[in-house]
Design brief:
The complex is a heterodimer of chains A (664) and B (169).
Chain A (H helix, E strand, L loop, with lengths): L4 H10 L4 H6 L4 H12 L3 H19 L2 H5 L2 H5 L2 H6 L2 E2 L2 E2 L16 H12 L10 H4 L1 H11 L10 H7 L4 E9 L12 E8 L11 E7 L7 H10 L2 E9 H11 L4 E6 L3 H14 L3 E4 L6 H9 L17 H8 L4 E2 L2 E2 L4 E7 L2 H11 L2 H17 L6 H4 L3 H21 L4 H16 L23 E9 L3 E9 L1 E3 L12 E13 L2 E14 L14 E10 L8 E15 L3 E12 L8 E11 L4 E12 L5 E11 L5 E9 L3 E10 L1
Helix pairs in contact in A: 1-4, 3-4, 4-8, 10-14, 15-16, 17-20, 18-20, 20-21
Chain B lengths: L1 H17 L1 H6 L5 H13 L22 H7 L9 H22 L3 H9 L4 H20 L8 H19 L3
The chains are: A alpha+beta (664), B mainly alpha (169).
């Protein structure tokens, strides 16, 4: 935002002054001004500064006795004022100087408060935007604190047009589920949506949103992006987009489900968040992938009205899940006992999920025709409709065509060079034109919203009986995120994604590091419907330290695994998989680098238990040695904060483990 | 990405041609420059001023582009016209939009008509006209081999022409 010369010069003249100095000086200024005029008024620059000083003085003079008697220090340390300035530990996160009226406003909330009050009372200038119009949230909040009569009445047409407050109904926190194809999206994404009453008929597609993201040059890729994302080097900012653009990206292109949490905020709170969003446009902040990320900054934006921590205070990382989790906990403040911050939860399923919903709502007969029709398309290649389809009534045809449209669009999304699917979809669209007009049926869903997921950080205490090592105690610390045994809610199903998963062993008074997975990902992509094109490659990647000698307590070596293959659904929600690839390791008593093959199964055993079982075989690349290991784990309990697990592992010797874990 | 950008350039160029009468009336204004500024402001993800591109006022006449234009040109430049917002929406939502057109109902269809300035009361009248155009386009030989921007341009033309003639724009 551009500052006027007037305002800029005022900043030069006023900004470094403390409140007492600024206010106290108002009675002595005339004499001081005369001295300046007499001595140095002839210099052009100082002439301008002088004018600014006059304005500064006059601004201070406009402060009413009521403000002067207020404890400005107390007001400057008010949590909402600090939230409006994005202060953390005595310093603002905002890196653009235009965000502050005081020269030291980025480090002094009190100086910025005094400078803001002064700036809000400067005369109007038709050529520049008035400070009140640049910072409408500050104006709203200060008016509430000090009384609306403290400031000159200024009409801010740009802000009024921008906000459309008459039709702004509510605000939603959006959570886009994690995306396993891109490391930066593994943890999901947060942004805010402004729900406009005029856009109800468009399913909110035209609702505005505010999003936070890093400014990453197109030339930065791979390692450079990784290093700068983690250790710093990128600037980031807020951007306004319409909701449909997010749905095109997340729901269609990336096939990610999106959850919308409509917040229980009153009209004044909604207006304050909108006003602060207006202020944040064009401001720049530092970006860090693990902490100062989208979840952190969007939570801080909401923090101007939500009186609670939406991100962990002492954590080294912030996850989008943390924000959703904290919003879901009822408020517990004296005048708002059990106030619920969430009014409603709306599910926006991805294209792939919509296809699954449509398919599973079909009758058995219709599913069979669906499969035969796809087979016919695949064989004939000319997109003709089979006789079974032609024999259906219009309702059956519409249901089938809607399912096929989702299916073939899903194929085009996953492979944009798939011209056959694009051609079949064209034929399906033409067929749909011949059928009666009616809206697409919206199916009820049984998906669990993400705030019901097991909390991502885990500490576990286990008793282990090892055939070689005897009994010992194991402590597990896992900052993030989920594994095959975690509760199924708001996360990628049939997947394992952990970071810095660390296990220590305690035996005979010794504490040893037993394993450390820097990164461990398994992403199974079975066909949910049983159709062959409804699946993707499954893969596993792991890099970390693991035991190198099963007879040595705490002997570890660097390991790397990469495998790929396929997974299938069977029975009542079971997933089987077969993967093959490489196992590389620094040193080992039994073998070195090897070809690796895994087969396994995972699934639920009722509401309160889930299991994972895998058989792993490794054939050395350099010797005739080979290893076979069996790994079986069962989780009991369905709490989001604790679970009990029983594990058995055989690799050269048997090992039985019973653990109890706390999640936070 | 390049294909999408070039596609939207073509669509927006078409939008300019459609509004040539308006351009002529407005005399010396450099419409092409405004169009380019508008386009890059809307499309480029790494562009510094992207945060200015959309305001909250997206459903009414200003179509949410006021904030961007206020930083680059006067508020009544091309970027503040509904054509840019309509073109962008069609460009990014084309598959869902055509599906809605085929079924004759849907949120994407409602949204694009709203962006084109067509009141809800007029949607029932304009929808069959757009459906007919899209059905014709889908039946055209070579549709499948068309570039994305060509398909977008056809739909853009249909939406704007029928909205202008049928709706109380």
């Amino acid at each position: 935002m551009s500052q006027s010369i007037c305002t800029a010069l005022q900043l030069v003249a006023c900004s470094s002054k403390g409140s007492a100095e600024l206010l106290g000086r108002s009675t002595r200024l005339p004499l001081f001004i005369i001295q300046i005029v007499v001595n140095i008024f002839s210099l052009p620059l100082t002439r301008l500064l002088f004018i600014a000083f006059i304005l500064c003085w006059s601004s201070a003079a406009h402060l009413s006795p009521k403000i002067l008697s207020e404890d400005l220090s107390a007001l400057a340390s008010h949590p909402q004022w600090l939230a409006l300035l994005h202060f953390v530990n005595g310093e603002s996160d905002i890196k653009t100087s235009e965000f502050f009226f005081a020269e030291d406003g980025a480090v002094s909330a009190e100086a910025e408060l005094v400078a803001t009050i002064a700036a809000f009372n400067t005369p109007r200038n038709k050529d520049v935007r008035h400070p009140q119009c640049l910072f409408p949230a500050r104006k709203i909040w200060l008016s509430l604190q000090l009384g609306s009569g403290q400031f000159k009445a200024v009409k801010c047409s740009e802000w009024q047009r921008w906000a459309e407050l008459d039709t702004l109904e509510s605000i939603s926190m959006i959570y886009a589920t994690g995306h396993m194809k891109s490391p930066v999206s593994y943890f999901g994404h947060n942004f805010l949506k402004f729900n406009n009453g005029n856009s109800v008929g468009t399913s909110r597609l035209l609702d505005p949103t505010i999003n936070f993201g890093a400014d990453v040059p197109d030339t930065d890729g791979g390692l450079k992006y990784f290093i700068k994302g983690i250790f710093g080097g990128y600037k980031a900012g807020f951007e306004m987009q319409l909701f449909y653009r997010h749905m095109a990206k997340y729901g269609e292109a990336e096939l990610r489900d999106v959850w919308e949490y409509v917040l229980n905020l009153d009209a004044e709170e909604v207006e304050l968040v909108a006003a602060h969003s207006f202020e944040l446009q064009r401001q720049k902040l530092d970006y860090y992938f693990f902490r100062e990320n989208c979840a952190h900054q969007i939570a801080k934006l909401l923090g101007v009205v939500v009186d609670r921590r939406l991100v962990p205070r002492h954590s080294l990382w912030t996850m989008p899940y943390n924000v959703i989790d904290r919003l879901s906990v009822p408020l517990n403040v004296p005048d708002q006992i059990d106030k619920v911050l969430i009014d409603d939860i709306i599910y926006h399923p991805s294209r792939r999920t919509r296809f699954h919903q449509t398919y599973f709502k079909m009758s058995t007969e219709l599913k069979a025709i669906f499969k035969r029709q796809i087979a016919s398309f695949n064989i004939a290649g000319d997109a003709t409709f089979i006789d079974d389809y032609q024999a259906l009534g219009s309702d059956g045809k519409i249901t089938l065509i809607e399912g096929l449209l989702d299916y073939y669009e899903y194929q085009v999304i996953t492979d944009d060079s798939d011209s056959e699917s694009a051609e079949i979809k064209r034929r399906l669209l033409l067929e749909r034109f011949t059928l009666p007009s009616q809206p697409k049926e919206i199916h009820a869903h049984d998906a669990s919203p993400p705030h019901l997921a097991q909390k991502p950080s885990r500490v576990a205490l286990a008793v282990v009986e090892d055939k070689n090592l005897g009994y010992y105690t194991e402590v597990q610390l896992r900052p993030a995120y989920f594994d095959f045994l975690s509760l199924d809610a708001g996360r990628k199903a049939d997947a394992h994604f952990t970071v810095l998963d660390t296990r220590f062993g305690i035996a005979g008074g010794e504490l040893k590091l037993l394993a450390l997975d820097f990164l461990n990902i398994t992403n199974l992509n079975p066909s949910i419907t049983g159709l062959s094109d409804d699946r993707g490659w499954s893969w596993h990647f792991r890099f970390g330290l693991d035991e190198s000698d099963p007879e040595c307590f705490g002997c570890i070596a660097l390991n790397f695994d990469w495998t790929a293959g396929h997974a299938v659904k069977f029975g009542e929600g079971f997933t089987g998989f077969a993967l093959a690839g490489l196992h590389l390791e620094e040193k080992s008593k039994y073998q070195s680098n090897a070809i690796r093959a895994d087969v396994g199964v995972t699934g639920s055993l009722g509401d309160s238990a889930r299991f994972y079982a895998a058989l792993e075989h490794q054939q050395s690349l350099t010797t005739t040695k080979n290893n076979t290991a069996l790994d079986v784990d069962i989780r009991f309990g369905k709490s989001t904060v604790w679970d009990v697990r029983l594990g058995y592992k055989y690799k050269h010797a048997s090992r039985l483990k019973l653990s109890v874990a706390y999640h936070w | 990405m390049i294909k999408k950008i070039s596609g939207l350039v073509a669509v927006l160029t078409f939008a300019v041609s459609m509004t040539s009468n308006v351009i002529a009336q407005e005399g010396s204004r450099d419409y092409k420059t405004a169009l380019e500024e508008c386009f890059w402001g809307l499309i480029l993800t790494s562009e510094d001023q992207r945060g200015l591109s959309l305001g909250l006022n997206v459903v009414s006449g200003a179509l949410g582009l006021y904030a961007y234009t206020s930083a680059t040109a006067s508020a009544d430049t091309f970027c503040a016209e509904k054509e840019a917002a309509t073109a962008l929406f069609i460009n990014e939502s084309y598959p869902a939009l055509v599906e809605d057109a085929a079924r004759g109902h849907g949120t994407y269809l409602t949204a694009v008509l709203s962006l084109a300035g067509c009141e809800v009361a007029d949607h029932a009248a304009v929808t069959p006209l757009i459906r007919n155009d899209i059905a014709t386009a889908l039946s055209t030989a070579g549709y499948s081999s068309q570039e994305h921007f060509e398909k977008v341009q056809t739909l853009f033309e249909s939406v704007n022409l029928h909205s202008a003639s049928t709706c109380s724009v």
